Amino acid sequence: MPRYDHPQLDAELTLPEAAATRRYGSYSTLRNRIHCGQLPYIRKDGRSYLVRVADLEALRAPESKAAVDAAIERIVAAAPHLTAKQLSRLAPAFVPAEVAQR
Fold first, then answer.
1. Domain boundaries, the chain
2. The sheet that has 48-52: what strands, in order across it?
3. Which of 34, 48, 51, 91 could cross-link with 44 by S-S, CB 3.0 to 4.6 Å?
4. Dihedral sign for Cα atoms in the order 62, 63, 68, 71
5. Residue 26 and residue 28: Cα distance in Å, rounded?
6. Are 6 and 53 in contact (CB under 8 A)?
7. Which residue did the predictor score with more confidence, 51 or 45?
8. What's the pTM?
9. How far apart are CA 22 and CA 28, in angstroms?
10. What does the alpha-carbon distance between residue 70 and residue 2 come to, in Å, rounded to a whole number?
11. Strand-pair category, 12-14 with 42-44
């Protein structure tokens, strides 16, 4: 299944729900990632962990160049028209880290 294909990246899942998808690892793997700080979470009812689908997707193995290019094409095709001012506000978010640190 291609990466970033989830319709609701901001959706929240419990750990059992995330583990049941068989995309992100087992319950214990996800819990370990929370405890070592790799996976952000919020507490539900003071006990259960909730994790965002976007954070789970970020943990998955890197995709091939072709898969990344296909994802970019889907994003570009779905993106609304932006004004010059909006583009200038967004541009800094797409500067490679090594360039931004100079």
1. 12-59
2. 12-14, 48-52, 42-44
3. 48
4. negative
5. 5
6. yes
7. 51
8. 0.52
9. 13
10. 10
11. unpaired
Asked if residue 40 lies in contact with residue 52, where contact means CB atoms within 8 angstroms, the answer is yes
* Spatial separation of the C-alpha atoms in residues 45 and 74, rounded to whole Å: 37
CB 38 within 8 A of CB 30: no
The helix (H) or strand (E) run that includes residue 14 is strand 12-14
Q: What's residue 83's pLDDT?
A: 95
Closest CA to 69 of 24, 9, 6, 2: 2
C-alpha closest to that of 39 among 29, 63, 22:
29
Q: Is 28's pLDDT higher than 90?
A: yes
At 46, list the tokens.
């003071």
Give the per-residue pLDDT at 7.
57
- Give the pLDDT confidence score for residue 1 in this predicted structure: 41
Mean pLDDT over the full length of the chain: 85
Backbone conformation region of residue 41, classed left if phi is above 0, alpha if psi is from -120 to 50, else beta: beta
